[in-house]
Structure prediction request, 166 residues.
Amino acid sequence: MPGSGKTTLGRALAEHLGVPFLDLDAEIVARAGQVVSAIFLQHGEAYFRQLEADTLREIAAQAGPLVLATGGGTPCFHHNLTVLKNSGVTVWLDVPVAVLTARLAAAAETNSRPLLATSGPSEKWLHETLSIRTQFYQQAQLRCPADACTAAAVAAQLAAAGIALG
Prediction:
């Protein structure tokens, strides 16, 4: 979900594991030459979701371990969850809506999040969106509850699951 800490935790986890870090939205921006909010505004969500799926598949086809932070909607479209699960370990950052709301309200980049730009970090929108996305998130191989979600905790979950990187 937006505000769950995917990029922050992803960077820390990649450093902890000694592997590269990629942010899927940053890769999309680099390839499209436009920020995500501009892509949504100019072309619409369907176009963005296809661009997201194409970029994900290109990254997944590359060899070598890495930590990839996806957008919160990524696993919900174009069979992206299957791509993610087939190319690595998926982790659900399970953060309560109240915490997401507080984080997003405090974040200066809320306007750069196209699905929040018109309404802001609405608790109602977050509840509705999480309700729709949970069916996808629950399929992640690992679940990291908000209060225990650190790079070391995720690395320990990976090790406990017998997953070695690097």
About this structure: The chain has a mean pLDDT of 90. The chain has one domain: 6-159. The two ends are 28 Å apart (CA to CA).
